[in-house]
Amino acid sequence: MNDRMTTPWGEYELARFPEDPRDRLRAWDAADTYLLRHLAESGTPLTGSVVIVGDRWGALTTALSERRPTQITDSHLAREATRSNLARAGAEESAVRLLTTQDPPPERIDVLLVRVPKSLALLEDQLYRLAPGVHEETVVIGAGMVKEIHTSTLHLFERILGPTRTSLAEKKARLIFCTPLQGIARKANPWPYSYLLPDDVGPVSGRTVVNHAGVFCADRLDIGTRFFLGHLPRSRGAERVVDLGCGNGVLGTAIALANPEAEVLFTDESYQAVASAEATYRANAGDGPGGSAEFRVADGLEGVPSGSVDLVLNNPPFHSHQATTDTTAWRMFSEARRALRPGGELWVIGNRHLGYHLKLRRLFGNNELVAGDAKFVILRAVKKDSGR
């Protein structure tokens, strides 16, 4: 849904990415407008090095593009949305420096604007990485919806950067004000975090998992993936396998260990996830004698040729920030069908109540229940031919 965000610097037509006229979710929220209004009304000097972290769909970056900010994001989709929204606003992309959470942050930061992420771990990691560039005169302001800001959020700012307070709430949004202190005693950044898998999860039993901050269930094996590991399909020979929405890459790594000749593509829209998947794979599998691995930050299966894949493994998300939606799952299933060769298979795990079997039957004309318990189902759909 295209929509116009009103700010003290003008109105901006913004959209999420990929753009879908049926999408009713806006590309900005009350936290974005609250922060922008505060910056204007308080006369905050937006000079020097302005850094924007976690901008959801580029709303802040687009509105402040004339200040030549640096954007830091973990999301490929947010990065592409920013590019599109800058172009729509008539701003030159060269006016903005686009970085990911895996890039070195700026060495000096004069204004730091933080959209509070859903993951407290990601916020912790980013504050640790940004802290060396922050000085006593740095303006640090966080923003989020009230339900996104907790006591633990404020404690992170205070522990890593300095004294912190919050604003009054407006339209269910709140601001965070932090006063940086030099010489503050900080523990070492705990991210990335590694742990050993249990001994009853198939090919990856007892293996090492590496998680960068922000990856789902970063400190333990989540129960859905554990269930999937117990029912993985057999892969033989030089098959082309995709771990779609790979997270920390445990599923794809399990396939690579079980079939060293497989070519495995790990893909996710999160830079943190793909870095985790590569670290997990390198720690356990390396390149098999006839196989290989590729790691790609992308919008699903973009760039993967049609009819080129034998097997797709997928544990689709059903949230977009705070919104519950099946849009991402539908796009993943559709892209998987396009990329699969005739006879290729999509294996999906999901919460039983999500009803993925209906979507798969509509797309593939078939689906089979591989396994299920009280919470999860594993479904298999086969691409019958190029026409169905």
Task: Note the topology.
Blueprint: E1 3-7, E2 10-14, H1 30-42, E3 50-53, H2 59-63, E4 70-73, H3 76-88, E5 97-100, E6 109-115, H4 120-130, E7 134-145, H5 151-160, E8 164-166, E9 173-178, E10 193-196, E11 208-211, H6 223-229, E12 240-244, H7 250-258, E13 263-268, H8 271-284, E14 292-297, E15 309-314, E16 319-320, E17 323-324, H9 327-339, E18 340-351, H10 356-364, E19 368-372, E20 376-382
Description of the molecule:
With 388 residues, the protein is of the alpha/beta class. 27% of the residues lie in helices and 28% in strands. It contains 10 helices and 20 strands. It has helices spanning 30-42, 59-63, 76-88, 120-130, 151-160, 223-229, 250-258, 271-284, 327-339, 356-364, and strands spanning 3-7, 10-14, 50-53, 70-73, 97-100, 109-115, 134-145, 164-166, 173-178, 193-196, 208-211, 240-244, 263-268, 292-297, 309-314, 319-320, 323-324, 340-351, 368-372, 376-382. A hairpin with a 6-residue loop joins β8 and β9 (173-178). Residues 319-324 have low confidence and may be disordered.
Structural class: alpha/beta
How far apart, in Å, are the first and last alpha carbons? Answer: 30 Å
Helix fraction, binned, reads: 25-40%
Unreliable stretches (pLDDT < 50, length at least 5) are: 319-324
| Average pLDDT taken over every residue | 93
